[in-house]
Amino acid sequence: MSDSENKGGFQADIPVDAVQEALRSVERIAKGEPPPAAEGAPEIAVEPPAGPDAAEVKKLAAQLELSTTLGRETQEKLKAEHERCLRLAADLENYKKRAAREREEVLKFGIEKLLKDLLPVVDGLDRALAAAAADDPLREGVKLVRATLEQTLGRHGVTGFSAMGAKFDPAQHEALLQVPTRDQPPGTVVLEHARGFKLNDRLVRPAMVGVAVEPPSDAPAGAPTTSTT
To answer: What's the whole-model pTM score?
Structure first.
């Protein structure tokens, strides 16, 4: 080869193995395969930053945990307060109902004690009418007084009742004596010492009565005996 042909040229001795390895690398790159790791190359570990950013993350995490705890405690307190308010509301409603019942009781039965004190007066008027003669001029006056008194009591829910001729009822009558008689069936009220009275359908005083019983065979009919009931 002449000097003119070699002028400007570059010659290098490249090993054949290096050339073949370069070709294989080109083929792998063309196929999209990652290049092989170099033998003996050290592995590089990536660690999170340990500077100011890491400290900020820890601070935010602590604040989040504290907020969660406070939120849970607040929710429990609100639940307990809600339940307490519900109990107070229920107690208030029960108190209102109880107060309404007591008020109704007072309105309906507040005069019960006064009525019991007046009943002997009514009994006295009844006995006066029973003992007075039909032509006694005072009879009509006593009758009028008794009617006026009963009308006044009636406006306050007081009603009187007679047990004469009725079947003895221990819930309405009080037996003072037994009357042996064959004129009425046993258990019939044949005598009345005092009428019974009710206040708004509540029994204030039972009727004081004598009750018919079967007389003994050797006893005269109509002889009263002391009650054992």
So the answer is: 0.56
